[in-house]
UniProtKB/TrEMBL annotation:
Domain named AMP-dependent synthetase/ligase: residues: 88-471
Catalytic reaction equation(s): acetate + ATP + CoA = acetyl-CoA + AMP + diphosphate
Stated role: Catalyzes the conversion of acetate into acetyl-CoA (AcCoA), an essential intermediate at the junction of anabolic and catabolic pathways. AcsA undergoes a two-step reaction. In the first half reaction, AcsA combines acetate with ATP to form acetyl-adenylate (AcAMP) intermediate. In the second half reaction, it can then transfer the acetyl group from AcAMP to the sulfhydryl group of CoA, forming the product AcCoA.
Protein name (database record): Acetyl-coenzyme A synthetase
Binding site for CoA: 197-200, 317, 341, 529, 590
Chain residues that bind Mg(2+): 543, 545, 548
Domain AMP-binding enzyme C-terminal: 537-615
Entry binding sites for ATP: 393-395, 417-422, 506, 521, 532
Modification after translation: Acetylated. Deacetylation by the SIR2-homolog deacetylase activates the enzyme.
Domain Acetyl-coenzyme A synthetase N-terminal span(s) in chain numbering: 29-86
One family name in Pfam for this protein: AMP-binding
Enzyme Commission code: 6.2.1.1
Names of required cofactors: Mg(2+)
Amino acid sequence: MSQSEPTAAAVYPVPDAFAATARIRREDYERDYAAALADPDAYWARVAQRLDWFVPPTKTRDVSYALEDFRIRWFEDGVLNVSVNCLDRHLAARGDKTALIFEPDDPAKPAQRISYRELHARVCKLANALRNLGVKKGDRVTIYLPMTPDAVVAIQACARIGAIHSVVFGGFSPNSIADRIADCTSKLVITADEGLRGGKTVPLKANVDAALKMPGTNSVETVLVVRHTGGAVDMQMPRDRWYDAVVDDQPAECEPERMNAEDPLFILYTSGSTGKPKGVLHTTAGYLVWASYTHESVFDLREDDVFWCTADVGWVTGHSYVAYGPLANGGTGIVFEGVPNYPNVSRFWEVIDKHQVTIFYTAPTAIRALMREGEAPVKKTSRASLRLLGSVGEPINPEAWRWYHEVVGDSRCPIVDTWWQTETGGILISPLPGATDLKPGSATIPFFGVQPALVDANGAILDGATEGNLVLLDSWPGQMRTVYGDHARFIETYFKTYPGMYFTGDGCRRDEDGYYWITGRVDDVINVSGHRIGTAEVESALVSHPLVAEAAVVGFNHDIKGQGIYAYVTLVAGEAPTEDLRKALVAHVRKEIGPIATPDFVQWAPGLPKTRSGKIMRRILRKIAENAPDQLGDTSTLADPSVVKSLVDERLVK
Ligand code: PRX
């Protein structure tokens, strides 16, 4: 699968009809991009006025990436509340407008429409309940919920009282929940009896029970349990409380906490190249400015749009473009509990017709999987309501892009291929649909205020059409502020590789039109179906199995998932590899991390290729996993070059 194409690639100009009514046209983009660089203080002070403040900021930015004098602060003396911005300020003009449309997993069940007034009341009730349970400003709350409006309510309720939420994706295992609770010492967990995905139940409460038996989790005082499926759960009193019993009788008004611009809003754990997932910390004002401004601009938002971002709230895309951005903009968003192929592979398109979705934002992996099913499941639906499509999470190969454009969008809808990261809070490189000509496979050009650059291995900035490592030369309001509890790791991970720059971990090409083509991670992070998995995490899960002596994990190109997980495993002396053991190891990784970390291949490795100083040479392992044994390069520095031959001979993809 080719991730990028020659620069002579087809260009899709902005459709005239789109440009005619667009919020931002080419000349607006050029003017504002230049203005944001020329006088960032003036530019962002103006943009910050899109929020409602208790006390407007008098300071705009205070940023230094210099290691000895490091700081990132935006709007630092402003005072505001995020939930007031997402809910209260819409009540007068949009109280009856639909804020969220809930489409359940089972299409036979009724969809729900929740107005801004109703959402406000639900958020206030939960916020009051949380306060009654002793949750105060700055306390951490872990949210482990299915993709239902309750998840958005929980997020907004935390924001209302200044509690820092940490959403854990419902597909993560008890171990992963426990690690995340322990890292931020959560006081309270909000979960549901069970989740529902593709007709199957997910034992959410039971997973929380298992997590809370693990070491380091005794900070949790209360578990609030939403009745979702009605499935049986163990309630351990007084720790566990039914959500409805605690929340339903609360007042529907709740005094919002006055938050400083730089007070933490949430922690979201994401994988890096080393160690355990790190808690990416976002703060209040800069994050909301970024989520709302990018949402409005990149998606060319109109008052009557129905915006559907298919991401789960367990990921950053679900934070910025389900739970925060659309609500801050007074938009109507869809919350979809299900999956693209249940009960059939037309589900996405049927939901688009059912709710008259105008903007649809999903991941390349879903497009590729649905593309495989052919055009018929798409073409039997209308999709006439659509006017804009979006892509996020991984590079979209030009073939999938064209299918998305022609088949899903009937060649009518522009596609915004949005590049960003958990760390960036929102979109950084993307077309603006009324301003930017498109090239399939390219995330195109930077958003206002974003200064990408490509550097070589020594950090020298490269000019013109070239390829290198993607860095950002200056801050933007939505930038993460720290790794929760480990500021040194924040600096080390992002600002030490290339001093004075933020290093993204991505490789990238720039063509002669200045368009950016992300080529994928250059660190030890694998992007599986748009989800980040650290090779170190999978390796440590594998070696925690008693029969495993050593493991090395690499990514390989996968037709549907973008990348898959390929593991090399050395067993302890005397253990014979068997098919049963292979299955047991795969099951063990699923149990330790969650199904998203399932290895696609486990190859038995009598030995791993190492340098004389004992470092595993992943470059060689990657080439073997990619079935490119003729590209191994120099193996002469290996401690024992003979191990390579046996790995090549036994490789699982030929
Ligand atoms: O490698 C890039 C890839 O996803 C990484 C960020 O992953 P995460 O923090 O989980 O956030 C995903 C949703 C924003 C990036 O370092 N990535 C994300 N969007 C794109 C992309 N790669 C290419 N094109 C994109 N549009």
